[in-house]
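We read letters as residues; the integers encode the fold. Take this protein.
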Amino acid sequence: MQGRTLPKKPSESIRSLAAAHDAERLRLAVAGAREAVFDWTMADDRIVWDGATEFLEGHADIDRLKRGESLRQWMGEKGRRHLALVIGDEAPQETSFEIEFEGASAMGAAWFEMRGIRLPGIHGRAERLSGTIRQITERKIQAQRLTYLATRDELTGLLNRTSLRTELAGVIETVKAEGRTCAYLVASVDRLATINEAYGFGAADEVIVAVSERLAGALRESDIVGRIAGNKLGVILGNCGEREIALVTERLRGTVRSDVVATRAGTVAATISVGAVWLPSGAASSQEAMLRAEEALDKARANGRDGFATYVKSPQRETARLRLMNIADEVVAALNEHRLVFAYQPIICARTREVKHHECLLRMKKPDGSVMGAGQFIPAAEQLGLVRLVDRHALEMTVAELHANPRASLAVNVSGTTTGDSAWLQSFASYVGANAQVANRIIVELTETAALNDFEEIARFVSNLREMGCRVAIDDFGAGYTSFRNLQMLHVDMVKIDGSYVKGLAQSRDNQIFVRTLVDLAKNFNLKTVAEWVGSDEEAEMLEGFGVDYFQGFHFGEPDFELKW
């Protein structure tokens, strides 16, 4: 019997097989997840690796990573700092950790995520680290892209309005604390609508990009530039005396006008007008500074192109500013307290006189019970950057009403300011996509002037909406400069004839000719037409004779807080 190995008991064999099976199952799971498992003992600084270690070989020498010191070097400075905190912890109990780091690699930047548990020894010091490492480069790049899109203007790559305002707030606080001065400028590309008409929307975008590059090249490294609207750029001069503002502005205007802009459609002679405010004496906050620079810009443009003006305090403007700020406060309070509501106005079929859908007209219910129309607060919301919140609230209310009322079809407006924000347009389309079951009952109304700005972006937005089943209408058509050729390129479904051409139609021969011409052109492009401000049966019969498809106006139904059919 000596020298012979006693056979294992059946229970021991079963346990061994089960353990082997569990180990294999764990190995397959880790390999499938493309994670490498590590076990690092502090005493000998040795690391045992297992699992999907092959993905590490493209980024590091796996044999060298069997020593802790080599792993530290591979992790980079930021990763080493975090790892040192984990190892240096002297908690007596086991603690989990998670570290993201950029690994040194001949193949370029690669990001990894280390997750594990710290096992303490007798005195609480780390005795062993065990866990997994996986590559997260794609996720990191996507996160960085989302961050970029949230802070940058997609066309120019400059800061967007929100980010520039944040930077301006920081600069104002800094100069206040240090007893210095700075300035904020708004530069507007002159006559961009004319460039659109003459050269096309692609050329206008090229001009905006060229102007932004020229301004950025003429500024100091400490200055900051961003795009705050379709044709407007904001500039922060971080250290600037009051007398220097005019000199800097003249240099910037000269840089733009000094040479033509070469576009694919031809050469364009571009100029800018500039409004400026000196800080901090001219404004106490970034919001106030942006508003006052816009006031100065309006003054600069009053005399034509290539103008310049600085903000000068006046009692009248100060009163208007305070009123604007008060309205903005009311808008924010109304959003928080759900006092922004809809009044629904019916859209009538011209042939049958039946209600086909309703337009959602925004109203603000004030705490005292009175009601404020959109025209009383939307302009302030646009100037102060609040209209994005208002438009999103309007969309959510529209979708909620459509879910609650399966018979309803509703038209919701998107403001002109919002259409210049590509990230917002994407979020709008995403929200509609998430509620696809009601999308075919949504009509999105864009103003004609909004369609002129960022034409290519608006065209993509319209295309996305129509693919999801929405209809798109151009509101106030005839009040701006959009051609039917542009409407054809946008692929909208209907146009709403501006009410100023419909009011008193029976008494105006010129308006009759204009409306009939619009309707005939619309029919040639297979566009439905809606006549706004229809005020009598006489006007309705005349419009029906012209071929108008739908009527909207107090004669057929005033806006009502209750949706009626």
